[in-house]
Amino acid sequence: MTVQPREQWATRAGFLLAAIGSAVGLGNIWRFPAIAYDNGGGAFLLPYLIALLTAGIPLLIMEYIIGRKYRLSPPAALRRMARPAEAIGWWQVAISFVIATYYAVIIAWAVRYVGFSVGQQWGDDPEAFLFGDFLRAPDTPGFLDGFVPGVFWPLVVVWVVVLGVLAFGIRRGIERANKVFIPLLFVLFAALVIRALTLDGAATGLDALFTPDWSELGNGSVWVAAYGQIFFSLSIGFGIMVTYASYLGRRADLTGSAMVAGFANSSFEILAGIGVFATLGYLATASGVGVDEVAGAGIGLAFVAFPAVISEMPFGGFFGILFFSSLVIAGLSSLISIVQVVISAVQDRTGMRRRTAVLGVGGLVALVSLVLFPTESGIYLLDASDHFINQYGIALAALVGLIVIVWVLRQLPSLQANADATSAVRLGHWWRICLGVITPVVLGWMMVDSLRTEFQENYEGYSTGFLLSAGWSVAIGALLVGVILSFMPWPAGGEDIDLDLESPADRKER
Question: What is the C-alpha separation between 510 and 195, in angstroms, rounded?
Answer without folding.
Answer: 47
